[in-house]
Specification:
- This protein is mainly α.
- It has one domain (3-204): Tetracycline Repressor, domain 2.
- It is 79% helix and 0% strand.
- The chain has helices spanning 3-41, 48-55, 59-65, 69-88, 95-111, 117-122, 130-153, 158-182, 186-204.
Length: 209
């Protein structure tokens, strides 16, 4: 007599699991599509309607997961920052090796015809919600600290390492803009070569007493 209720419960659990998986899949597709739109058009360059068309859902489905565009924006930047920093790994190691790896993380976006998500939104910082601007700031702060550790590990004093970290980050973001505007990735590669040369110079520079 208990067989049917047990079967019903198992069926219900299977149905709920399937619905949850579909819901998670939709959320993932929304984040992926919104990231691409933001990296190519900017945060203010697309709407929920654009996103709905891209993913083939209703705008109500987007609002279910992200009530406001600011909520969506924070989710995009948080995911991007966390994934970017995980991809970088620890800053310890030969400076040129770490810089090559760092450059490669930006090159991946260039090869897809995209900009750095946080660089793109950072250019709009006066026109985005404050909470989104703060999250973008977290990306740049985390990158700067990682680069400082890389350059400091080569023997540079902290102040000099900070200056080179900022120069490196600014140069790569600028190199991405040049490559996109000119539709020529060679512009980015020129910047990359200069950064690697800077890294070699950092390794050779003695730490002041």
């Amino acid at each position: 007599m208990t067989t049917k209720p047990l079967v019903d419960r198992q069926a219900a659990a299977t149905t709920i699991h399937a619905l949850v998986m579909v819901d998670m899949d939709t959320k993932q597709k929304l984040l992926d599509a919104a990231t691409e739109l933001a990296q190519t058009r900017g945060y203010n360059g697309f709407s929920f309607h654009d996103l709905a068309d891209r993913v083939s859902v209703r705008t109500a489905s987007i609002h279910y997961h992200y009530p406001t565009k600011a909520d969506l924006g924070r989710a995009l930047v948080t995911r991007y920052t966390d994934a970017f920093m995980r991809g970088l790994g620890p800053p310890a190691g030969p400076v040129e090796q770490r810089l090559r790896h760092y450059i490669g993380c930006f090159r991946a976006a260039v090869s897809q015809g995209r900009m750095c998500l946080c660089g793109m939104i950072g250019a709009e910082v006066e026109a985005v919600p404050p909470e989104l601007a703060r999250e973008v700031g977290r990306f740049f702060a985390a990158n700067e600290e990682w680069l400082i550790e890389v350059f400091a590990g080569s023997g540079l004093a902290k102040a000099a390492a900070r200056s080179r970290a900022r120069l490196t980050l600014a140069a790569l973001e600028g190199g991405m803009i040049l490559a996109r505007v000119s539709r020529n990735a060679a512009h980015f590669e020129d910047v990359a070569k200069a950064i690697l040369a800077l890294g070699a110079a950092s390794r050779a520079a003695p730490r002041p007493d």
